[in-house]
Specification:
2 copies of one chain form a homodimer. By secondary structure, chain A is an alpha/beta fold. Helices cover about 45% and strands about 10% of the residues of chain A. In chain A, strands 1-10-9-7-8 form a 5-stranded mixed β-sheet, with helices on both faces. Strand 1 of chain A pairs antiparallel with strand 11 of chain B.
């Protein structure tokens, strides 16, 4: 299993800024209380993301649909944004070669393209690739009403009809609400292939539902292993044994440091293949915990800010700041114990003898030495960090990681006393967008917007 | 020219959290004092990144070397990390199609691959691509002693010799110090082609020297336009006219908000093509300003933390937190006034009528409406932001942007009273790495490291 090393978070090792035994015990006790409450919800059929793990029928259907397209497509093109995109992106980045290093036609394994933005210049490039070979398009949206995915879908259907005529229907699969929403209506009307997003699971907790599993299955990722990792993490976490589990530890440590002014959570894998895991975590944590009001309606402005970093690269970009700048950070390092190929560093040629200290080592060794050296130099400055070690980058351990962080986030929600499953803040921006785009029913927002549009002239450069 | 709109940073518009007229005047006055001092340094031949703009000889040599390889290579592979990689990455991402949408053999324009990490699994992919067609390898390092670039270089030379024998020398070009360092020694010994990093310009300020210009030139980017944009921004900024320039405004606003607890600087382009610009800025800002001591030696823990975001995507990931979470952020939006192709949103097919409010608009319009809607909803919550508008994404405007942020960063350094050109904090981590890798001369650090290696056992999960 994955390992969590938090020695660089405690007073005994990093001195003044570390957590002392008393406060650690206190916050862990609180985390346990939250977890017990979650265990009750889980037993009663609530806690959708946890209960979805045991839905074998969902897994079977997903695998079956994925098999249907085996060997027939070169690209899996996912239309989706936020939680509808990040799980698939993370899985593909972690477990597949870099897209340019893939040869889908030869290898019989498709490539993943994710349309998670509407920048037209970029989207044009993505569609150019998507239409250069046989592609399957997935539209992933619980409601189908999301402006970005919706506009892409209109664009796509138009294009598919031009290219395939009535055959457009065979190129498109939807992952959406099992019953409600405009996308479900559309699927039913045109008899499109589809899979459900379990009604109880929100976007950012959906990677282990068809939202993440269908793209993963199409890419040849081992779904059974992925689920097994998550299920083992779930079972282990809810044993409520005497020792605290890693989700409780993570939630407690993140929460406690936030209370001490460390409201920047740096997620720093020493692995390019895990760089999208940081993106996935950043959404999960930010959207779940960044809340103005507590469950009791009190203003709290909860949460802390995830920062996506990459080791060793960002040692040459961000580490100076992390070591010497404001004392507002807690770094989580992700370490791969084993890379698939260590890449030995060969002898230095004439003229480069000064580099020969590297010879005989491997890149794998160097990157992990740098991780430890970096965490130790932070510790020496009294700056806290955690290290999560992953034995090997495969579907099984990713399943563990996903579930660990989902559960830790929900526990943190309990510690902050907020609802980790809603996102009330973003509604206003959507309404402003509708209004500015002239959508019927949103005219009244125009007036509210005028105050922001009119008075700006003098606060511009050039004037 | 680019435009800076800071209405959502002032009290008059966003109320309580905005900057009032008095404090704005005061901090701008300080910024002007700093700029006057910089103008003196610049006139005396200091301020390397500014004076390098007028080095026509450097530009001529770079363009000449780039022309030498025109039509002969499919990949430009840059070995470099931090400031040696981020400028080229930013330029390629902004001005070239997505790598998968490129066909270098057909288009006679190479693709850029950047080796800015040592993750062996990822590096293996990159080298696979690099050796699948004719490539030119650039090794970019001021000293050549950087562990990551050094180990890649050993690996590369070994591989090049296997493939090309003595011809390896024609495949490798160095950008390094004109006189000193082990890489310069190596270049001289083997008569390799090379270009200088001007001695006075540090890595993170080097994009407009051969460090960024050579890769850009090889990729067919218009170097004259790039430099012209920067030169115009430089001239305009140092006119010291009655109105404050955009670099002064940026530095003053970022600095003033940091003093009010907004120490998270979100850089959020609404353009995938500008996503690497955020990475470039994040290094520039973090490494320049994250400093423990002031110039006078007083402990200051200066700086603020750059966060890389992407619109519209991160509206579905980070915006909930930015709107409702802790009051510790200042967002900078980057807006493209014009995309190269707006992508019209077509009519909704049967069953998707509810999306027809999008029809008749374009993706370009939608993304910019979302930007304004987002900044307005932040403003309504009293949360500050700036919007920088870029007329068009081309070399000329990128030149302006690069120089604007370089100068703003150096001015901010003056406001914080720190040295924006050094990075003393990262030295210890390097020494720890040397020691752990068994490099001679670093044995003494072993002892210091023992305290971190030994006592951790009880702070691990599982125990």
């Amino acid at each position: 299993m994955i390992k969590l090393d938090y020695r660089f978070a405690v007073k005994e090792i990093i001195r003044k800024n570390g957590l002392g035994k008393t406060e650690m015990d206190a916050v862990l006790k609180k985390a346990r209380t939250v977890l017990k409450e979650l265990a009750k919800q889980r037993a009663a059929g609530g806690l959708g993301f946890a209960n979805a793990l045991s839905d074998r029928e969902m897994l079977r259907k997903t695998a079956e649909l994925a098999r249907h397209f085996e060997g027939r497509i070169e690209n899996v093109v996912a239309l989706g944004i936020g939680g509808s995109a990040l799980g698939a992106r993370t899985l593909a980045k972690a477990l597949l070669p870099e897209p340019l290093a893939q040869n889908p036609a030869l290898e019989k394994r498709p490539r993943l393209l994710v349309c998670d933005n509407i920048d037209p210049d970029w989207l044009k490039d993505i569609f150019k690739i998507a239409f250069s070979g046989p592609s399957l398009f997935l539209v992933i949206s619980k409601s189908g009403a999301t402006a970005e995915t919706g506009s892409q879908l209109l664009f796509l259907i138009n294009k598919l009809k031009q290219v395939y005529g009535e055959g457009w229907k065979d190129r498109l699969v939807a992952v959406t609400d099992p019953e409600k929403g405009i996308l479900r209506k559309f699927v039913n009307q045109h008899h499109l292939k589809s899979l459900p997003v379990p009604a109880q699971v929100g976007g950012r907790y959906s990677v282990l539902t068809p939202v993440g599993l269908l793209p993963a299955g199409l890419l040849g990722i081992d779904l059974e292993q992925l689920m097994r990792g998550a299920i083992e993490m779930d079972e282990m976490s809810f044993k409520l044994s005497k020792d605290f589990g890693p989700a409780e530890l993570l939630a407690a440590i993140y929460f406690q440091f936030a209370g001490k002014g460390r409201k920047i959570l740096v997620m720093m894998p020493y692995s390019n293949k895990l760089s999208d895991f940081s993106e996935w975590f950043a959404q999960l944590w930010a959207e779940s915990l960044g809340k103005k009001y507590s469950l009791a309606g009190r203003p709290v402005r909860a949460g802390s800010t995830p920062v996506r970093a990459l080791g060793a690269t960002d040692q040459h970009s961000q580490m100076q700041l992390y070591l010497e700048g404001p004392e507002d950070k807690l770094v989580t390092f992700l370490k791969l114990d084993k890379f698939s190929e260590p890449l030995a560093i060969p002898a230095a040629p004439a003229g480069l003898e000064e580099l020969s200290w590297l010879t005989g080592h491997s890149m794998a060794e160097l990157i992990n030495v740098e991780l430890f050296a970096t965490s130790a130099s932070l510790a020496r400055e009294g700056r806290p960090s955690l290290t999560i070690s992953i034995p090997k980058l495969d579907a099984y351990h990713l399943g563990q990681l996903f579930y660990l962080f989902e559960l830790a986030t929900v526990i943190a929600g309990g510690l902050w006393k907020i609802n980790p499953f809603d996102q009330p803040g973003v509604e206003l921006g959507k309404q402003y967008t509708y209004s500015l785009m002239g959508r019927k029913g949103f005219e009244e927002k125009k007036k509210e917007l005028e105050q922001f549009q009119k008075k700006g002239g003098q606060y511009c450069w050039p004037k």
